[in-house]
Each structure stands twice: as structure tokens, then as C-alpha cells.
Amino acid sequence: MAAKAPLLLRDSEIENDIRAMASPVLRAAGLEPGNMGIYLIGDSQLNSFVAGGQAIFINTGLILRAETPNQLIGVIAHETGHITGGHVLRTKEAMRNASIESIIAMVVAAAASVVGRSGAPMLGASGVAERSFLLFSTAQEATADHAALNFLDRSCQSARGLLKFFEILQTSELLSGDRQDAWVRTHPLTQQRVQYMRDHVAQARCSNAPDPPGSAELLQRVKGKLHAFLDEPSKTLAAYPESDRSPLARYARAIAYYRTPKLDRALPEIDGLIRDFPNDPYYRELKGQMLFENGRVRDAIRPYEDAVKLAPAAALLRVSLSQVYIESGEPALNKRAIAYLNDASRSEGRDSQVWRLLAIAYGRDNQLGMAALSLAEEALANGKKKDAINSPIAPSKRWPRTPRLISAPRTSTTRRSISTSDPAAAAFPTGAQNAV
Fold first, then answer.
1. Least confident window among 136-150, 257-271, 305-319
2. 1-15, 106-120, 233-247, 374-388 — which one is most confidently predicted on average?
3. In this structure, is residue 225 part of a structural domain?
4. 94, 135, 339, 374: which is deepest, by most CB within 10 A?
5. How crowded is residue 209: how many other Cβ atoms within 10 Å of its Cβ?
């Protein structure tokens, strides 16, 4: 059976929440949290990796398996150790400027090639570089461990979470081939590494430090939102019955009703949350998404605009609002979309969807030269340099005047590389479902 293409899941709220939890560790490493890309991969396996400079990719399976923020923070500390150690850049310099989709595709292919033991490699000779890119040496792993412990100590956070994660993976390492968790196959785990971690926990001054204030609530909300989008709506509604009036339960029910779809049930839930928590941008984002996906484009503008006002630094929110502006068909709003997308491209320039929307907006504004340039940028973001050089065609000739923007704006959670025949295809709202 052919392997499924990897899923890139974009969610402004979840990415920002994880970045907030990891900020003390990132600062201890001398990195600016705002410059660190956090990307979610829709995969149930326990795995994470770094690539392309300051970018950490985390499987949803790892996030959902984390019992405490400390466990997730410990894994991020380890991956940060790979970044500060320059391991990825030394093994594959070309990944620095690779697109998000190209990175994910390469990592998935490389992971398949290092199944080892009972699994035969899935890449031929041409895959040697990819395997080298993904497979860290034992020495690099030890260096990343040491760095992670240093970052945790300097931010006075416990290493118990990372130790717990190692112990979980140690069980997986006893399995063979594709039964192992991907992290074990690409991050060689030894008994010496686990013992080194135990010895450190036994003597470190912050080993009993509690989770940072508010981090447990952030992780709970992240996991609740992921479950609400990934699980069947009926399962979510059973987990969060109407009798549960907690904000998380109301949020999860709003998502479940929206996915059912029962807009008459979803809107009252989200409106109640907006009323009770008027400064939360993500409730307004979800309302805008609900309305947009149900054809109420004009009604979706206000909640998206409010979300952007509340979270002006969230580039993905501006991208989503821009898509709604474009779909409104109003020239003045289309010009706003161009401004927002150009601004968002500064931090999301690797994402081809930004350039695709810019090309459409420029085409509708009759700026054909800028539209062609945006098409070239889209091709570069997709790793298609030849197309970027040889494709000066304006988007008005490439797409119909009302392009088929698949079901949803870029926000809340966007998925890619899933066909509608996949039973999980309705789990996340979709932006452009480009094959990786």
C-alpha cells in the first residue's frame, strides 16, 4: 500500500501556544522565540525534527501523547540543541531555504529509508543524501541532549519530562522496523543516553520545579482543539457533553458542531465564548471560518477583522482575512488583501499559499506584472525553480476569475495532501490541498 503524503497542519493558535511554552528554553539557547517556526505534522507517531534553519516540526501524535507541558518542552529543548549545534545545516545546507512542503516530503521519505532492522529501505541510491539529512549520529544526539539539559537548567525547568519521553521511546526501541516510533529510527537512543538523563535529573537543582504558570492550561487547550478537529464529531460531543460548561468544552463542541455540520448549534456556542472572552482572537477566528465555509463571506469579514485586531502579530490570521477579502469580490477589500499578504509574506514566505493568494489578488487588481512575480514566488516556495523561471503567465489566465479555494481560509487549522476520499479528510478545514 502506498504511503500517505505528509500533512502540514497550520493553526495560528496552536503554533503560538507551543511557542509560548517553549519561549524560556529558546531564550536560554540565545534564540528569539518570535523567529522560531513551529509547524504541525498530521501524524500519530511520536516524532519531531528540525530543518531549514530555525524551524521545529512536531507530529500531532507527540503533542497528544504529552502528559505534561514539561514533556513537550523537553522534546523542544532537545530539537533546539540540534539547531544550536548546527547539525542539520552541516548535513544538508540546501535545506536552509527549502519550502515547508519540501522539507516534510524529504523527511517522510528519509524516515522510510531508515526503517532498518526488519524494514527494507524505500529509497534507492539517490536517497543517500536524504538519509544523511535525517539520521542524526549518536554523537550529535549526545550533544543535543547536553544542550537540552543546559537550556532547561538555565530556564529552571525540570528535565523529568524529557527523561519520561526517553523512557517511552526506549520501549519502542525494542520493537523492530516500522513498528518503532519514527523518533527512535531517526534519533538513535542508547542506554547511555537514558542513564545520562537519569543522573542529571537526580542532581539538577530544578528537577522538582513545577510547570510554568499557565502552561498546563495551554497544553490542555492545544490537545482539546486537536482532538476536536481530528476525532469524529460524535466522539468529541461524547467527551464534552452539554453539562460541561468549561470554556474548553464549549470550544470543542463548537468545533464538533461546525464539522458535523450544524451551524445552528455551532454559532451559539462560539458566540457565547466571544461574549464571555471578548479579548480572545481565536474564538472570533473560528466564527469567521464557520461563516466563510458556509458561503457567508460578507458575514465572515467582521470576526476575522476583530481577530486580526486582537492578534496583530499572527500572520496566519492576516492570510485568512485576505482570502475572505479576495472572495468578497470588492476591489477595495482586494487591495487590503494585497497589503496584508505582502506583510504576511515576511514571516510566511516559505508557504506557497501566501504567494498563490497574492497572485490572485494582483490579477484581480490588473497588476499583471506583480501577479506573474507572485506566481514565480509560489513556484519557488514549492521547490519548482524551472517553473519560476519559465512561468510569466498572469493568474487571470491561469485561474478562473473566481478560483476554487477549497472550502476554507488558511486559519484555524489547515491541512494539505489529503484527498476527499480519505476518511479523515473532513477533520481539518482546508486551504489549498496541494500534493507534497
1. 136-150
2. 233-247
3. no
4. 374
5. 16
Same domain (yes/no): 39, 100:
yes
Beta-bridged to residue 430, according to DSSP, are: 415
Q: Is residue 97 part of a domain?
A: yes
Give the chain as a 3 state SS string.
CCCCCCCEEECHHHHHHHHHHHHHHHHHCCCCHHHCEEEEECCCCCCEEECCCCEEEEEHHHHHHCCCHHHHHHHHHHHHHHHHCCHHHHHCHHHHHCCHHHHHHHHHHHHHHCCCCCCCCCCCHHHHHHHHHHCCCHHHHHHHHHHHHHHHHHCCCCCHHHHHHHHHHHHHHCCCHHHCCHHHHHCCCCHHHHHHHHHHHHHCCCCCCCCCCCHHHHHHHHHHHHHHHHCCHHHHHHHCCCCCCCHHHHHHHHHHHHHCCCHHHHHHHHHHHHHHCCCCHHHHHHHHHHHHHCCCHHHHHHHHHHHHHHCCCCHHHHHHHHHHHHHHCCHHHHHHHHHHHHHHHHHHCCCHHHHHHHHHHHHHCCCHHHHHHHHHHHHHHCCCHHHHHHCCCCHHHHCCCCCCCCCCCCCCCEECCCCCCCCCCCCCCECCCCCC
Q: What was the pLDDT predicted at 194?
A: 87
242 and 350 in a single domain? The answer is: yes
> Which residues on adjacent β-strands are paired with residue 183?
none
293 belongs to a structural domain: yes
Q: Grid coordinates standing for 116?
A: 532498518
In a domain, 219, yes or no: no
- The total number of residues written for the chain in this structure: 436
Which grid coordinates are listed for 226?
A: 486537536
Sequence-separated (6 or more) residues with CB below 8 Å from residue 338 = 322, 358, 361, 362, 365
* Terminal-to-terminal C-alpha distance of the chain: 18
* pTM recorded for the entire structure: 0.81
**Pairing state between β 55-59 and 37-41:** parallel
| Minimum mean pLDDT range among 135-144, 323-332, 370-379 | 135-144
User: What are 170's three cell numbers?
Assistant: 526506549
Phi and psi torsions of 393, nearest 5°:
-80, 135
Are the CB atoms for 109 and 131 separated by under 8 Å?
A: no
